[in-house]
Amino acid sequence: MACETCSRATRGWLGGCLTATAVIQLFFLLILALASANRVTPMSPWDFVFAILIGVPLILFFVCVLSGIPSIATIWLSERLCIRSLVFFVLAGGLIGSASQMVLYRSVNELGWLYVTAGCFAGLNYWYIAGRYAGAETEQPKCLFQNMLSRMNRL
User: Fold this and answer.
1) Are 26 and 55 in contact (CB under 8 A)?
2) How far apart are CA 133 and CA 21, in angstroms?
């Protein structure tokens, strides 16, 4: 991949990781808010600040570590085959989120939908930042998927 492609893909991956982190963190903040509604003494705003200051870096670390290798494979595939489909990146993100949950917990649990949802939003954000330009810097003969489609259209 060209240098510009690598920087675009890295920006997209980091944007996807931040998006997945935001989805997971917002869910946990919602749970924290609902739990505090049933308490006699309400939680202070500082409890939410500490939850964000500790939660966001911790969740971001795990999201980046767990999604790194599958994301590299997905990005390489999309660049090699010039796949720019929004559906491809959303489904790939959901699949990566599901796989990350399996690696983290070694089973599917009640929060599986959260990881799939976070992955889908991450895939959407990756597509917006980088995926819609996949394969733009490669020469036309290297885009296998587009060449295959053009050959099929000629028949």
Assistant:
1) no
2) 24
* Paired tokens of 93: 């993100």
d(CA 74, CA 80): 10
| 20-74 residue pLDDT tens | 999 999 998 888 878 776 666 667 777 778 888 988 999 999 999 998 899 999 9
Q: Specify the residue for token string 């917990």.
A: 105
C-beta of residue 17 within 8 angstroms of C-beta of residue 118: no
Residues sharing a CB contact under 8 Å with residue 2, sequence separation 6 or more, in sequence order: 137, 138
User: Model-level pTM greater than 0.85?
Assistant: no
Nearest CA-CA partner of 111 in 122, 100, 123: 100
77 contacts: CB under 8 Å, gap ≥ 6: 83
Instruction: HSE, CB side, 13 Å, CA atoms: give it for residue 108.
Output: 7
